[in-house]
Design brief:
The chain has helices at about 5-50, 55-65, 70-75, and strands spanning about 80, 80-85, 90. The protein is mainly alpha-helical and about 90 residues long.
Amino acid sequence: MKNTTELYGELLETQEDLLKLTKKFNKVLEHKAKITEELNWFRVYGNYIGKVYSNVDAEACGYADGDEEYEENMEKPKIGFYEINSLGIAKKIK
């Protein structure tokens, strides 16, 4: 039978192990959040590219003709409820 000191030592080891596992788990959650955010960015950006540049020839002709619609498209690109900037989603549109 174990004495109180041995049991207390085992309890401390178990607590240390739990703390280590909790820290590892939190790191995994942070990494998952980062990857999910990155994946979302690529989805939104891909959707933006698909909508804004769905017909590259028409866009190129519009730009060559000096069409104002092309310039407006590039000044404030939007996708769904999001406004896009050069780094990704700038903000939700109200």
